[in-house]
Write a structure and sequence with these properties.
Distance between the termini: 68 Å
Order of helices and strands: HEHHEEEEE
CATH architecture of the largest domain: Orthogonal Bundle
Strand order of the largest sheet: 1-3-2
CATH topology of the largest domain: Arc Repressor Mutant, subunit A
Structural class: alpha+beta
Largest sheet: 3 strands, antiparallel
Strand content: 25-35%
CATH superfamily of the largest domain: Winged helix-like DNA-binding domain superfamily/Winged helix DNA-binding domain
Oligomer: single chain
Radius of gyration: 21 Å
Number of domains: 2
Number of strands: 6
Shape: flat
Number of helices: 3
Length: 119
């Protein structure tokens, strides 16, 4: 008789996964309303709202605009903060050192190149 293997997931892991999914969805699709996130991710409105507040408090997400509808209230939209984090790259060759900084979308925000002689 085969026994089924079940992996238990803690509430903390579920919350981290929800937050990650919300952030990734905003990264892939700018300017989404709470309701659109609920629909896309099949999460409850309180879960989406709670995670958006946390992401805003961390400086990773911001309110980006208003989505107009023909009826009802206009919905606030959210986007990631492109420069909330940066990545640095360094290229060292025999005669140069090049550095580059990119934002969360991969856009170059700073670049420098200087001559350097190495033996």
């Amino acid at each position: 008789m085969k026994r089924a293997f079940y992996q238990t997931i803690s509430n903390k892991e579920i919350k981290m996964n929800n937050r990650s999914n919300i952030y990734r969805t905003l990264w892939e699709n700018n300017d989404l309303s709470r309701q659109k996130l609920v629909s896309m991710l099949h999460l409850s409105l309180p879960t989406v709202t709670q995670n958006l507040v946390a992401l805003e408090n961390e400086g990773l997400v911001r309110a980006s605009g208003i989505e107009s509808f023909t009826g009802g209230r206009n919905a606030k939209t959210y986007s990631i903060v492109n420069d909330a984090r940066i990545a640095l790259g360094v290229d060292i060759t025999k005669s140069n050192i090049t550095t580059v900084a990119v934002d969360l979308r991969g856009k170059i925000i700073a670049k420098s190149k200087m001559k350097a002689e190495f033996d």
